[in-house]
Structure formats: structure tokens, C-alpha cells
Amino acid sequence: MHLELRHLRSLRAIHEQGGLARAAETLNLTQSALSHQIKALEEQAGVELFLRKTKPLRLSAAGMRLLRTAEQVLPIIESAEAEFRDVELGRVGRLHVAMECHHCFDWLLPVLDQFRRTWPEVDLDIRSSLALKALPALVRGQVDLVISSDPEDMQGIVFQPLFDYAPTMVVPASHPLVAKGFAEPKDFVTETLITYPMDRARLDVYSQFLDPAGVEPAQHRQVEQTAVALMLIASGRGVAVMPDWVLRAHAGNPELALLPLGPQGILRRLYAAVREDDLAQPYIAHVLRLARTEPVRMMRALSQGRNM
Fold first, then answer.
1. Which superkingdom (predicted)?
2. Which of 17, 52, 58, 287 is the most core-located residue (most Cβ within 10 A)?
3. Are 56 and 16 within 8 A, CB to CB?
């Protein structure tokens, strides 16, 4: 017996609708086509599936057995079909994120919190353990989005600009550099530089400021948390360089002073790296929009809070 899904759907429709005419309409078939389909199935099975002398049309004992099969199989098939449709429409997918910037949690978590409310069927995760090898993980398909300030020429990978930021030096309020108004590379020679625990090449203070000048700080100390680093700085235990958007919330702290790197300051840009083939996914486009607007919203809220 050659049983097809269309046979199960037809049998179920006739049972639910109580006749060929209404079932054919539900299935978008002509009544004649549906009748021929059922007749061909009965010939294969060698038994009648319907009691044709009853009104409404009723299933025979053999037909009831086949209906139970239809009621078990069709919901599974329909669920799978719905999932595939959702994938095709971009409602279902995966968004695993890795970051090359330790401080990005401050704005990325609110972004992802908004995202998950709109896309509850997208598998969302932050792969923090991949921070030092995030871009290779993106190429291999281990993650789907990487936050980076260092775009590279990589086949199949596109870097979408998010927002600009200024690496800013934070020192104790009593530091002699406050009178000068900005920092030069040589000013770090006698300082303990406090940074996040990241690869040196991913730290703006080294890649954009100290290394080009051939300057090394007196000491280098790594600290996990921004609040702890700022507490150490306020106590005179060192200095740090952090993005301006990280420091905006602490701009009113009388124990700290913020200084640009160089007389004109340094401007950097943050990017979201994604696979080129994924750009067409609606949820990828949405998370990129959120990632561009959330930092602006945070900065505006901080500015309003200071002005109140």
C-alpha cells in the first residue's frame, strides 16, 4: 500500500467536514478529484474506508484505523512545516554573539534584552569565552555576530558600522595632568595602567596610542570590573583608558577627571561583524538597528540625568 500525506489529509478532512463537497473545498480540490483519490486509496488497501450509505459520510472500521494514523502523523508534519516556514521568513534562527571589547556588556545587554522580546524564537546566547578568537569563530559558524573595533578584510564577512566613541583617559581628580587638559603617550611612562583582561592588540590605549609612540607604562594591571577600576583610580592606584560612553555615567564623580588622548582626542568606531549571507535575515537587521540606537539612547539619558 502506497500511503501519502495527501491521503491522510484527505481522510481527516472528510471525517471532520462530514462529506466530500465541504472537504474538497477545505483542501482546495474539486469534489471529483477528491473522490478519485479516495477510490484509488481504497483499491490499494483492498477495503472500503467509508460507509457510503450514511449521512453524514462516516468512516468504516478500516477508515478509523487510518484516521488514528493521520491524527498521529499529521500534527508532527505540520509542526515541522511551520518551523521551516518560520525559518524561511526569518522568525526562527540563532544569534550567538561574541565580543572583542570587554566593556561592551554595558550597552549590549540592554540591546539583547529588547531583541529577545521581539524575537522569542531566536536562540540567543553570548559566547564570552571566544573573546580573543571571535572573528575566526564567526567564519567557522560558531557564532553569528561579533562586536569589534578592528575591521578586517575577510571573505564572506561584512563589518556593519554601529557608532563612534572616543577612548578617554581617567585619572584621579588631583592628578597633575588635569591642569594640562589632555594626555600624551609620554605621560604614561610613570603610570600604572589599569585595563580590562584583554589581548593587548585589542586595547585602544596600546594599539592607537602607546605602541605607535613606542611607549610602555611603568606597570600594567588588569581588572575585570569597571567599578573596581574606577575605585582604584580614585584611590591613586593607577590610571585607565576607557570609551567615553562608559565614563559618561561617572563624569560627575568629584574624585575622577577625564582627559582626551592627545590635544584633539582620538575617535574610534565600533562594528558588528556578520556573515554576508546572514544580512538578509530580518532578525539580524533588527539587532543591528538596536545596536546603533541603544548607545545613543543611553548617552541621552545620562545627559538628561546630569542636567536635572
1. Bacteria
2. 287
3. no
